[in-house]
Amino acid sequence: MVDQRAGVEIARTPDDRFADLPGWSWEPTYVEVDAGDGSGPLRMACVDVGPRDAPTVLLLHGQPTWGYLYRHVIDVLVEGGMRVVAPDNIGFGRSDKPTSRYDYTLERFVGWTRSFVEALDLRDVTLVCQDWGGPIGLSALAADPDRYTAVVAANTILHTASPELANRLTWPVHGVGESHVLLEQGLLDYLLHTQRAPNLRASDFVAGGCAVMPSPEVLRAYDAPFPAEEHTAGLRQMTALLPLTRNDVGARLGRRTMRFLSTWEKPFLTCYSDGDPATRGWESVFAEHVPGAAGQEHRTLEGAGHFLQEDAGAELGRAVLGLVPGS
C-alpha cells in the first residue's frame, strides 16, 4: 500500500508479510514520530513488552534488518524481568517507508529515534546498538543523555573518518594527511552493490553476515518488509549515507558524538563478536575513549559473525542483563 500525505509517498508493508515468522510472536505497537520535514507524522513500529515499571532496554538495529533480529535477545531480557522496546527504523520492518530515497538522511534517522523515545517517554534506558544502531542511537543519546543510564555497543562503529583511527581498524575508513582517505575495498564493494543491484534482498546480507547460515524460513523473515522495489528506498539509501570522507555531514555528526562520549561516565559495555572484520577494532576505540567503559567486563562472543544476535543472541542478552542497573 502506498499512501500520499503532504506530497510525500509512504509505503506500508502488508501485515500478512509478517504472519507465522519463526520465533516471532510479538504483536507490534505503533508510535507516531515527527517526520522531520513538516509533512506530518510517520508511523514507527516496535515491540514493547515487559513490565512498564521495570528497567527499560532499547534495542536498535541497523542495515538491512528490523526488530526481528533481536528475537533471541528479547526472550532473555523479558525472562529477566526487563521492559524491552525494539523499534523498526523508518524504512524497515513494519514502520512507514517513504518511497523517495531523498527522504532518508542520517540526521533524520537520529531525529526519528529521538522522537520515538520522547513519544514513549522512555527513561532510565539501557541502549543496545548494533550496526547502524550505533551511529543513530549514540547520536540520539548525545542529544538527550538524561534519558539513558547505560550503553551496550555490539558490533557497531561511529562514522568519523578521523585520522586517529589509522592502524586501529580491520576495515579502515579514515583520513590520511590533509586530503586523502584510506578505505576498505570490501566496504566500497558493498556500497556500490546496494546502489547498482536491480534487486536488493536483505536476506543476502544477513546470510553473509552470520557465522552459521540461518534457515531459509528465517532468511525469508528478513525479506518480509520489502515485497516490492517501492518499499526499498530506505534499504538502499542507508548504505549510501555511509560517510567516506572527513567532510561528510555524517562524519561531522560522528565526531560530535565521539566528543560527547568522551564525557560519558555511566556504564558503557562493548560486546563484539570474534568474526566481524567490518567493526573489529572499534571495541578498543570505545573502551579507551569512553570513561564509562573503564572497569567493565567487556565481552568477545566467540563463533559469531556481524549479526551476533543471530549467532549468539542469548549470550548477548545475558551480557545486557548483567549491565542493566537494578537487574
From TrEMBL:
Organism of this sequence: Nocardioides marinus
UniProt KW Hydrolase keyword: yes
Domain of life (superkingdom): Bacteria
Keyword hit for Hydrolase: yes
Protein's recorded name: Haloalkane dehalogenase
A Gene Ontology molecular function term of the record: haloalkane dehalogenase activity
Membrane-traversing stretches: none
NCBIfam families: PRK00870.1
